Amino acid sequence: MKRLFKVCLFMLFVFAFSCDPGTTDLETPDDLIVAEAKTTSKQPAQIGSPFGITGSSTLHRNKNGITANFKAENLYPGAYTLWWVIWNKPGECEESGACLDTDFASADDVEVEVMYAGGHVVSNNGKANISAHLNVDDASESINEDFFELGTYGGLQAGNTFAAEVHLVLRTHGPVVPGIVNEQINSYEGGCDDPLQYGPFTEYPNVVGECADIAAAVFPPVIPPPVE
Questions:
Q1: Which of 48, 134, 165, 217 is buried deepest, with most CB atoms within 10 A?
Q2: Taken in order 96, 68, 126, 172, is the CA torsion positive or negative?
């Protein structure tokens, strides 16, 4: 079995949790769409987590790329990273509500790309505020090949900024470790004894060397897309 599935079992468990209607303020399809006369869209979403982590996220889209803000609370102090998970062809996913872990098995069909979005050191206030931007056709921060044994699909593909399903995943790298904090907040494996460990975890991991994907926000495609 590929390493990919070890990672994704818990990653997408978080995704499924965050897609529950009770954890998002996107109640109807109309809420996903701005006025058709505009050439951009703005989507809000609540953060989903099985560990009591709360917060909100916003995704702005235009034809050139996407910009996100991710605000989370009730976090342990420590090092965190944020990751883009771009599903370029969500219509090929098995379920209509959101793409799930099983869809990674059909990566060539859904053309999914996992990429670094940003990093943050959380202080004793337990809050993170991370902003990120992704241009179309930029896969420079992709970890598909290094960790998921997948090829690259070009990141967020040009012409697909409104049609792609976008997930933002918050990953804990444990307490800050002096000397490697830069690695902890700038890479998938920084500070991790086993970067491919997976859950489900019964408790929020909070020890040195233990990393996990702990919260997520999900942004469905904008249908129909704004008029250019």
A1: 217
A2: positive
Sheet containing strand 112-122, edge to edge, reads 112-122, 78-87, 165-172, 212-219
What are the start-end ranges of the H helices in 73-204?
A: 107-110, 144-148, 181-184
**For position 23, what pLDDT does the model report?**
36
For the chain, the 3-state helix, strand and coil shares in percent, each to the nearest 5, are 20, 30, 50
CA dist., res. 157 & res. 223, Å (int)? 17
Environment class of 15 (CB within 10 Å of its CB; exposed 0-12, middle 13-18, buried 19+): buried
Question: Which structure tokens are listed for 79?
Answer: 């090092």
Using the predicted structure, report yes or no on whether residue 12 has a pLDDT greater than 60. Answer: no
Strand order in the sheet with 65-73: 41-46, 54-62, 65-73, 128-135
| Phi, psi of 137, deg, nearest 5 | 60, 25
Query: What confidence score (pLDDT) does residue 39 get?
Result: 83
Burial degree of 82 (CB within 10 A; 0-12, 13-18, 19+): buried
Kindly give the pairing relationship between strand 54-62 and strand 212-219: unpaired
**How many angstroms separate the CA atoms of 113 and 84, rounded?**
8
Q: Residue 128 pLDDT > 70, yes or no? A: yes
Condensed to tens digits (0 to 9), the pLDDT of residues 53-68 reads 999 999 999 999 999 9
Pairwise CA distance, residues 51 & 135, whole Å: 32
Strands 41-46 and 54-62: antiparallel
